Request: fold
Amino acid sequence: MPKLKNPKFFSTRALSVALRGVFSFLVPGAFLLLIAFLLHRLFLVEKLPFLTRIYPYVVWVAGVLVAWRFNRSQLFFVILLLAAADRSLFYFAAKGPGKGAAANIVYNAISFLLPLNLLFISMMREKGFLEKRNLWRLGLIAFQTIIIVLICVFKPWNLDLLLKHSFIKSPAFKPLHMAQPALFVFGLVFLILAARYLLSRGVIECGFIWVVVLSFFALNTGKARAALTIYLATAGLTLVISVIETSLGLAFRDELTGLPTRRAFNEALSNLGSRYAIAMIDIDFFKRFNDRYGHQVGDQVLRLVASKLEQATGGGKAYRYGGEEFAMIFQGKDAGESIPHLEALRQVVEESKFIIRSKERRSRKAKNRRKYEKPRSQEEVTISIGVADDQGRFSSPQDVIKAADQALYRAKEEGRNRLVR
Reply:
């Protein structure tokens, strides 16, 4: 079969993927931060006092309910931390004899400990909402509260002075109310969370980044205590939305490949319109990979093919249909118009280099890999594609899928690694 040149295969698709990545990172975190910032800077918080009386409690109650409903202990502990920080700062900010020094100590201690606690919670394994093993985490939070109270009362070893110590003398720090030790901790935690997000691209990991950013804004509001409450409550709301989005995503997005699931595919069928093409795609000799190298390598093959299908041009939308089979919808195109894009996909998968390490190399520790390393084998991964369209010949999308399946079967009978209409 002649090769189809498609120099723009990656250009527009890569840009689209990049834009989607930026959008998923900014929404809803950046949007909620902007709203809280405008409420603060336009003094709307002071003009709308009911916000600070109602909004945080609505968020905290909603957060606990969502944590219980979706069995998410991480969300519960974040809500608990943010609520405790807000109420503690609100209480010690009240005017009264001798409360000024205590308020400063509490503020500096919370500024230092809050990001560390958020980092710890983000890294802990999800144990469920009502697990007994969560009791020691509650104990850890209570222990920190006791320590802060002891520092306020006894001021041991000048810890209160260390919490507000200035390591660098620079006017750049003057606009910020936060002490330099807390600034350093916030910066370090932000970098760690950002690195984790870049590696996983997870919604929850992204949510934790915005929780830290909103907490930073909250603790730099100075005497605007109402604004502090709005920022901290919005931080909790951000994670609540992230948990809901993640839970919904599990139903509509395949965890292994990252592609939409068959459930999402079935929903898409109801909104196709009057002109569309459907392609059924199958990995050739997939059982051979599982039998020869194990399911772990088979999963890598699935991820490789899925990553290529996700880059389809021509508006093609890929789905994980089941096992090693995928489906792709071209809305607004017939089979003839979708064939060049499908052929380009077939070629890209065929030209991909899939390297399989030896069992010995996979099992050795990193420090011994060079000593035991053996030549790696290279396996060819190919796909077969069957495509069909409605074009008045079929009465329903299910009939089009059946026709595409029959075309896929012919592609395999004719030798695989080909596209059949």
About this structure: Residues 1-5, 360-367, 369-375 have pLDDT under 50 and may be disordered. The longest strand covers residues 276-283.
